[in-house]
Structures are given as structure tokens and as C-alpha cells.
Amino acid sequence: MVWNRWQVRPALANDRFADPGWSYQEPVVRPCPRCGGQLHSLRKPYESAGKTYRYVALVCPACPATFTLSEVGAKSTTTS
Ligand SMILES: [Zn+2]
User: Fold this and answer.
1) What distance in angstroms lies between residue 24's CA and the mean position of ligand 1's atoms?
2) What's the gap in Å between 20 CA and the centre of ligand 1?
3) What DSSP designation does 32 have?
4) CA torsion 79→55→14→21, rounded to 10°?
5) How far does the centroid of ligand 1 lie from the alpha carbon of residue 50, in Å?
6) What is the pTM of this model?
7) At 64, is the secondary structure helix, strand, or coil?
8) Measured in angstroms, how far is the CA atom of residue 2 from the centroid of ligand 1?
9) Backbone angles phi, psi at 53, to 5 degrees
10) Could you count the other beta carbons within 10 Å of the beta carbon of residue 69?
11) What pLDDT is attached to residue 1?
């Protein structure tokens, strides 16, 4: 599981964060809403009605905690 990357087991903001298939994506420009530290994004592709979408999870290894995009007020990991 990708959490092993940071040696943390953060509380999961969403039940699907516990599912297999997550992979590391990139650092996030927005800071952690709790500690102001560096957030990282994880992604997990899924298919619905013949299209491929992706779930996004945000991880703060320092807290440790996880967040959804809406929790940090972002629509994507690349907007500030
Ligand atoms: Zn934090």
C-alpha cells in the first residue's frame, strides 16, 4: 500500500482510500489545512459507463492525515 511510502497510517478521509490500486501522483501546491505542511496526491483510476475517471486522495505525512480535494478547497491538484 502507498502509505508505506511515508511509514504512516493516517486516518482516512474517505472509505475508498482504503481500497487497493492507489499510486503516488505528485506533490500538491496547496498546503495541509491542519499543519500547513506539504501535501501529496494519490490517484486511483476507475471506470464508469465506459469512461475512465480517477479518484484523488491528498495525504499529509506530517499530521498524518488524508483529505479529499474538496476538503482543501481545490478542484484539482494543480490549481492553487
Ligand atoms: Zn498536515
Assistant:
1) 17
2) 23
3) P
4) -130
5) 36
6) 0.85
7) coil
8) 17
9) -115, 180
10) 18
11) 64
Please give the grid coordinates belonging to residue 76.
Answer: 484539482
- The domain locations on the chain are 2-72
Ligand 1 center to 35 CA (angstroms) = 4
From ligand 1's centre to the CA of 69, what distance in Å?
14
Map residue 2 onto helix, strand or coil: helix
Q: Which residue has the cell 505542511?
A: 37
Alpha-carbon distance 25 to 57, whole Å? 10
Cα of 36 from ligand 1 centre, angstroms: 6
What count of residues does the chain have?
Answer: 80
- Where do the DSSP E strands lie in the chain? 23-31, 38-48, 51-60, 65-67
pLDDT digits (tens, 9 = 90+) for 25-75: 999 999 999 999 999 999 999 999 999 999 999 999 999 999 999 898 877
